[in-house]
Amino acid sequence: MKPLVEYEKATTADPTPIKLLTPNPDFQKYHTSWLEDKWFPFMGSFLGAGSSWYYYSVQNRRPYYACLHMKLGAGILGAVAFYYIKQHRNAYLADKDAMYRHYIQLHPEYFEPPERKKVGELFKEWVPVR
Q1: CA–CA separation, 128 vs 125, rounded Å?
Q2: What whole-number distance in Å separates Cα of residue 92 and Cα of residue 98?
Q3: What pTM value is reported for the model?
Q4: For 107, phi and psi rounded to 5 degrees?
Q5: Within a domain: residue 1?
Q6: Judging by beta carbons within 10 Å of its beta carbon (0-12, 13-18, 19+), is residue 44 exposed, middle or buried?
Q7: Residue 49 domain-assigned (yes or no)
């Protein structure tokens, strides 16, 4: 029977900062969900239509079905706006990670790999008081 965890791979992880900031080729395969690309447009349409519903219907004391074209347009506009906000956010975070990687490559003396310790070495000696 195959073990659940491959201990050789689990214990030989490279904790250097450059390794942590370098994207893995399998990242998209294992770290994205089916909802990730739909969440921002959904929230944009929800906020756009909800805010227009509140403004046009509740504030002006009109029925909820009044100005449906305004609510639909605000929902579409919100979805498009949030889609582009997400694209801009992803580009910004990719540039930031690239800047960090470049700095780490230029100054490796500041980013030495941490010393490996066992859990027992981390705790101080403890004597129970009874």
Answers
A1: 10
A2: 10
A3: 0.66
A4: -125, 70
A5: no
A6: buried
A7: yes
Q: Is the confidence at residue 32, as pLDDT, over 90?
A: no
Domain that holds residue 93: 36-112
Neighbours of 73 (CB within 10 A): 14
Number of domains making up the chain: 1
For 71, residues 6+ apart whose C-beta sits below 8 A from its C-beta are 49, 52, 53, 56
Confidence of residue 85 (pLDDT cuts 50, 70, 90): very high
Tokens of 4: 């659940």
Place of tokens 């780490």: 104
The rounded distance, in Å, linking the Cα atoms of 76 and 117 is 54
Per-residue confidence (pLDDT) for residue 129, from 0 to 100:
84
Q: Considering the domain boundaries, does residue 2 fall inside one?
A: no
pLDDT at site 56: 77
